[in-house]
Amino acid sequence: xxxxxxxxxxxxxAWKLTLLVATIAALSTFPVxxxxxxxxxxxxxxxPRGTTRQRTLLEGLPVVAYGVAALTFLAFGVSVGAxxxxxxxxxxxxWRETRKNALRSEMVATxxxxxxxx
Length: 118
Prior knowledge:
Layout: H1 6-9, H2 13-41, H3 52-76, H4 78-114
Helix pairs in contact: 3-4
């Protein structure tokens, strides 16, 4: 018995198409649920505080980390790619949240210095 995703083991074009549609529907559920929640809660996203360079680093580093992990997966295989994704994804998330907290602290200090308590 071969081990692999159902999509690759399916016999017949109709069965493969059905599994492909089901897979896409399952993968699209999370973003749709997030969008519905944002719309229902009337969330108004705003860009994080900081200079353009700070914001670019804050938002761009995780994308670069996931790209490097994908290249590692392609170059060295599943095991090394999964380890790289775990290390680079976790590290970039930690760095991003640390930077975001530092920028928030700077903003709070600036507001206190101006006499505002927002």
